[in-house]
Design brief:
By secondary structure, this protein is mainly alpha-helical. The protein is 68% helix and 0% strand.
């Protein structure tokens, strides 16, 4: 994981609440696409299960390097 992506993820986790801002949403989508090797995609925010799963996916990747 790139250093700048690690920093973005730490900031994301420190500031995330029950509702994502547009910037947080884009960071999540960008990092998930980059590190799980799929085209950039924005899942419907009406299905938070997908977003929660994506956060866990990125957490797993981040925690492996720490």
């Amino acid at each position: 994981m790139r250093i700048e992506d690690q920093d973005a993820w730490v900031d994301f986790k420190a500031n995330v609440t029950s509702k994502l801002t547009k910037e947080q949403y884009k960071i999540l989508c960008t990092l998930h696409a980059r590190y799980l090797n799929h085209p950039y995609y924005e899942p419907c925010s009406c299905k938070p299960k997908t977003l929660v799963m994506w956060i866990k996916d990125i957490d797993n990747i981040y925690n492996k390097i720490k």
